Amino acid sequence: MNQNRSIGELIRDFLSETGQLAYFAGRFFREVVRPPYEFREFLRQCYQMGNRSLVLVLVTGFIIGLVLTLQSRPTLIEFGAESWMPNMVGISIVREIGPVIIALICAGRIASGIGAELGSMRVTEQIDAMEVSGTNPFNYLVVTRVLATTLMIPLLVIFGDMIALYGSALVEYFKGGMSFQLYFNKVSDALAYADFIPATIKSFFFGFMIGLVGCYKGYYCQKGTAGVGKAANTAVVNASLLVFFVDFMAVFISDIFY
Question: Do residues 146 and 208 lie in contact, with contact meaning Cβ atoms separated by under 8 Å?
């Protein structure tokens, strides 16, 4: 009986959290078109989330390309399909592996950072002070950050995909003697617009979800230092789960149309 009640409470909490997040998203879409427009803060957030995440994304992408090629190469050699390595790696990285892995990396860094930052502002009553002074903290704190993540995550995915393909080409150059020009010619022949369009579109949704969840958890953070840590932790978990959910929906929809 207690177990059934605990499951019911979990379901109730999940539905409540989903409804509150949907309301938060609706408020974002209302505020994003309402002046004043914080362009300077938006650019600052783009720098914070894009430039400062670039090194981590490039290192991650490079390792992805190296590991994927090193792990796949023995199997392709066994079947005599070593020449298909650029095609397989290019399609895998551009379609799925690159966007999802880089979005998860950004969820860990950016969503937790936003949750901790806004949570600290809520705990120290800085957000309350902004509301009392007549400013719009939601526009300044939330809208700018969500727009920045929505714009910067696709750019980070593009850079990550490029360096991942370079890492794969490096392995093929040293192990298979394939030139870089031949490798990238094979990759470009294997890829089509149907590979780039769904991956790019879902990257925007990844960025939107990461920014939205991070802002939501931080903006409604509970009082106390423990609440800040919980906001940062749950922001990462929820953002990562939403990345997987958005990826599933994108693959399902693209499979229907393409």
Answer: yes
* Among candidate residues 148, 139, 154, 182, the one with its CA nearest the CA of residue 246: 154
30-87 residue pLDDT tens: 999 888 888 999 999 999 898 889 999 999 999 999 999 999 988 888 888 888 899 9
DSSP for 108-154, written as a single string: IIIIHHHHHHHHHHHHTTHHHHHHHTT--HIIIIIIHHHHHHHHHHH
22-28: long-range contacts, CB 8 A cutoff, minimum separation 24: 24/212, 24/215, 24/216, 24/219, 25/212, 27/138, 28/142, 28/143, 28/146, 28/212
Cβ-based neighbour number of residue 104 at 10 Å: 19
**What residues contact 123, with CB distance under 8 A and at least 6 apart?**
221, 223, 224, 225, 227, 228
The reported pLDDT for the residue numbered 227 is 84
Give ∠ CA 82-85-91 in degrees, rounded to 5: 155
Residue type, 36: P
Distance (Å, whole) CA 93 – CA 70: 14
Cβ count near 13 (within 10 Å): 10
pTM: 0.91
Question: Closest Cα partner for 180 from 188, 189, 190, 170?
Answer: 170
Provide the residue type at 43 as one letter: L
Token couple for 32:
């994003």
CA distances from 26 to 21, 109, 142, 163, 213 (A): 9, 25, 12, 36, 13
